[in-house]
Design goal:
Helix content: under 10%
Distance between the termini: 53 Å
Oligomer: single chain
Bound molecules: D-sorbitol-6-phosphate, zinc ion
Radius of gyration: 17 Å
Shape: globular
Strand content: 35-45%
Largest sheet: 6 strands, antiparallel
CATH topology: Jelly Rolls
Number of helices: 2
Length: 193
């Protein structure tokens, strides 16, 4: 560690790098991996019975998040690889739980590396937006907007995410509020309604 002037509340750390396997959609030298199986998605899909059938049939992985965490402090930037598997729960495409940041006035950038889908976003006062996600496309999630990704393709939807490290995650409000709209397979194509 070199000597430098630091500000209270923001830790000094040494620079580092990470390796991302763009073909597989994983951070190969991650130090933290979070997994969400079908059983952790209860309450989020319209067709609860379809979700229970999926849980009973082996409780498949829904998505994984790979990180090399940094201090959750002002000034640091958290980043991760989010890998959402393809599939349907009833007629609804696999999706992430979705969350507001606990510090609402923090945004996030998603750079889609693989797959296709949508980023659904909503605010506390009822605004809703959807942005297409596909390889090479960046989605800017502004402060105040909850966000949930949805995989409408046949391969994994992989994104690199970066956000204020102190942002935190508020899942409870989405569990209570829902997400305004869903992405459903209708007539063989994704429909947001
Ligand atoms: C974190 C960022 C992503 C998500 C990940 C899983 O702020 O938005 O890393 O955590 O895509 O989604 P969720 O809604 O389960 O956290
Ligand atoms: Zn986020």
């Amino acid at each position: 560690m070199s000597s430098t002037t630091t500000t209270a509340g923001t830790s000094f750390i040494d620079p580092f790098s990470a390796t991302i396997d763009l073909a597989e959609g994983v951070m190969t030298d991650f130090t933290r991996r979070t997994e969400r199986k079908a059983s952790s998605m209860r309450g989020h899909y319209a067709d609860a019975s379809a979700l229970e059938r999926l849980v009973a049939s082996g409780d498949p992985l829904h998505y994984e998040v790979f990180e090399k965490p940094v201090p959750e402090e002002y000034g640091h930037l958290m980043y991760c690889i989010s890998k959402l598997y393809p599939g349907l729960v009833g007629e609804e495409y696999f999706m992430t739980k979705g969350h507001y940041h606990s510090i609402l006035q923090t945004g996030e950038i998603y750079l889609c590396l693989r797959g296709s889908g949508f980023m659904l976003m909503k605010t506390k006062d009822g605004c809703f937006a959807a942005e297409k996600m596909e390889r090479g496309r960046m989605v800017y999630v502004p402060p105040y907007w909850a966000h949930r990704s949805v995989n409408t393709g046949t391969e994994s939807l992989v994104s690199f995410c970066a956000y204020n490290a102190e942002a935190g995650h508020n899942y409870g409000d989405i569990e209570t509020e829902g997400f305004v709209k869903r992405v459903l397979k209708a007539g063989g194509v994704p429909v947001i309604r």
